[in-house]
Amino acid sequence: MSKADKLFKLMCEDILENGFSTEGSIVRAHWEDGTPAYTIKKFGVVNRYDISEEFPALTLRKTAIKTATDELLWIWQRKSNNIKDLNGHIWDEWADETGSIGKAYGYQMAKKYKFAQGEMDQVDNVIWQLKNQPQSRRIMTNIYNFDDLSEMNLEPCAYSMTFNVTGNKLNGILNQRSQDILAANNWNVVQYSILLMMLAQVTGLTPGEFVHVIADAHIYDRHVPLIRELISREEYPAPKVTLNPDVKDFYDFTPDDVIVENYQAGEQIKDIPIAV
Fold first, then answer.
1. Of these residues, 157, 224, 231, 269, which one is catalytic?
2. Model's pTM, two decimal places?
């Protein structure tokens, strides 16, 4: 059975049984009807996924792997902050009338900085280091830019990636300040596993371990019954996910270069209420 399913179930059970309820506290998030969106949360959740063993997609319900990839490439490859460059509608509620989400995500990735090897953005710096000095302990990105926070329509949730090479394996740690477990957990796991696979392929490495660190891992009050039903479901074997081996340049990847095979999963949960 899928190892990602087992990790997800253990995490959810721990949050529900041992988490802290914010009910009665002053909270920023609210539901569409104006009701405060309370959560049950755990601090400092860490999940580890070995991509060399299997791809960590949930089978309790299906994750839209190609759509998740498109959003990842919107940020990391197209380096865009405009939803007109995105095929999905995930970011619609945070965009202004021009389609911009402000100086967030892709905007930060596109910024040029002066590195020892020349002026480049954070993504190009990661690729250069993985190719030229893979044993560096300074291969990382960070888009939580305090100078620009006031001009971001949403402050980054998944804000930092640290890469580390052991032998020929590329490993990565994603730091996330906050996560809606039902709506976004496996979405982000899938995205950054794909990113590791893509960067490994174009730098002559192989995918290794993906570590996901979540500071505030929470289940919203209106999601609790949905989570309880979800983790009671049957598990299936993990799908096989590979990349088009002909792609040698990170900027040539498209969602169609992600090949998903044998993805059996439970029924999708529709109309999940989203707190804003």
1. 157
2. 0.97
